[in-house]
């Protein structure tokens, strides 16, 4: 029997797998449920989330070990959430239930309603008469109307847990820049916006205040090297106030520093050209099926795809596709199918480009190009006689990296499919 473990697959160009565990630096929080399942909370700005086609996407896989000790990917799923879907500020029940009663710290003074408590991003337990409104097992931050930062950090925002006694303001070391509440599970800071190294800037009618919390690491040094077993923790907090009208803060943002950009390096890039058995593109002809026999004008459903890449910003661009009566793609006798990425205009049965999106069920639609051509046979141009033998399909393609300056989209003349 194989032993399975859950993994998250990072959407980098190498397709590396990352263990499903707490990683506050990447906006990933994992907790267990009583029924044995696991709940995963992922920040939209996290390392493993990317934005494509108005959706936030994350690739989740189930990885196991076979009898030979080799890692095997049993299943993978692409989860998505629309960009314009509003998120709730109230913490999830698991973030709240994970805090035992003896570790709870009050989020605000009493009395307070459940609605007001959750509006501050805190947990509410009506059964607790002493501390009904308390901090959840995460980072809780808000700006007060009287101009104060309030930041609570749980030790379990990282794995291994962050050393709370090492958490401090990055630039504030003066009197008053110390925790106002602490226990073995939480540390709470509260200080004026004008103190403790807070930076200030004006953007339009918005007054922006920013500060950072960091945790130092305990590094052990020996004769042959140094090691540490502490997590890296760095938290950036921003408060924004409107200078016109009410002094109530318009927004509060808590985010860890962004991850480093992906590393690019030279290496092999593989593409595959194959033919589907029908227009659903759910099954494909194998080597043993060739040569495939078709009646003239029958549709032939072709697909070109990028192999073994998970970068969502890679776009497969088809340049030319053509047919020859031999395996030699340079043979003088040939028939164009796609020219500069568009159907050949001189064909009376024009090739049809198949548009792709996430509704097609593909993890990375931009890694694919599909088109339908209609079968034909070559004819001798001198005697106008049909040539016997097979017809071979060829394509030239490249991979484009989408950016703000280059959408990698091929534009076709009016009346011709675009891709």
From TrEMBL:
P-type domain location, by residue?
Answer: 94-137
The record lists its disulfide bonds as 107-122
**SMART domains documented for this protein:** PD (SM00018), ZP (SM00241)
Q: Does the keyword Ion transport apply?
A: no
UniProt KW keywords: Cell membrane, Cleavage on pair of basic residues, Disulfide bond, Extracellular matrix, Fertilization, Glycoprotein, Membrane, Receptor, Secreted, Signal, Transmembrane, Transmembrane helix
Q: Which family does it belong to?
A: Belongs to the ZP domain family. ZPB subfamily.
Q: What is this protein called?
A: Zona pellucida sperm-binding protein 4
């Amino acid at each position: 029997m194989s032993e399975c473990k859950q993994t998250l697959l990072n959407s980098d160009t190498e397709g590396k797998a990352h263990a499903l565990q707490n990683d506050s630096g990447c906006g990933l929080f994992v907790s267990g449920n009583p029924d044995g399942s696991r709940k995963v909370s992922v920040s939209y700005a996290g390392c493993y989330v990317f934005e494509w086609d108005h959706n936030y996407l994350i690739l989740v896989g189930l990885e196991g070990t076979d009898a030979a000790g080799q890692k095997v990917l049993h299943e993978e799923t692409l989860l998505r959430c629309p960009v314009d879907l509003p998120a709730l500020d109230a913490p999830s029940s698991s973030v709240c239930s994970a805090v035992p009663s003896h570790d709870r710290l009050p989020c605000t003074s009493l009395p307070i309603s459940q609605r007001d408590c959750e509006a501050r991003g805190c947990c509410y337990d009506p059964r607790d008469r002493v501390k009904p409104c308390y901090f959840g097992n995460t980072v809780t931050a808000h700006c007060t109307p009287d101009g104060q930062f309030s930041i609570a950090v749980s030790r379990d925002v990282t794995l291994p847990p962050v050393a709370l006694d090492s958490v401090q303001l990055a630039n504030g070391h003066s009197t008053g820049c110390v925790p106002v509440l602490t226990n073995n599970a939480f540390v709470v800071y509260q200080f004026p916006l004008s103190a403790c190294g807070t930076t200030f800037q004006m953007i339009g009618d918005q007054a922006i205040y920013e500060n950072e919390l960091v945790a130092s690491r305990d590094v052990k040094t020996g004769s042959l090297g140094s090691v540490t077993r502490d997590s890296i923790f760095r938290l950036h907090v921003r408060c924004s106030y409107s200078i016109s009208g009410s002094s109530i803060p318009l927004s509060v943002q808590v985010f860890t520093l962004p991850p480093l950009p992906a590393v690019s390096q030279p290496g092999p890039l593989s593409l595959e050209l194959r033919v589907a058995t029908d227009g659903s593109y759910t099954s494909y002809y194998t080597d043993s099926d060739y040569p495939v026999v078709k009646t003239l004008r029958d549709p032939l459903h072709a697909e070109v795809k990028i192999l073994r890449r998970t970068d969502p910003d890679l776009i497969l661009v088809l340049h030319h596709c053509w047919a020859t009566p031999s395996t030699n793609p340079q043979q003088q006798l040939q028939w164009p199918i796609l020219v500069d990425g568009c159907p050949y205009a001189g064909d009376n049965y024009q090739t049809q480009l198949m548009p792709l999106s996430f509704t097609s069920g593909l993890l990375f639609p931009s890694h694919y190009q599909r088109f339908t051509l209609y079968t034909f046979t070559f004819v001798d141009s001198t005697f106008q006689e049909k040539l016997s033998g097979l017809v071979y399909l060829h394509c030239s393609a490249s991979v484009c990296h989408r950016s703000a300056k280059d959408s990698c989209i091929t534009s076709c003349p009016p009346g011709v499919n675009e891709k």
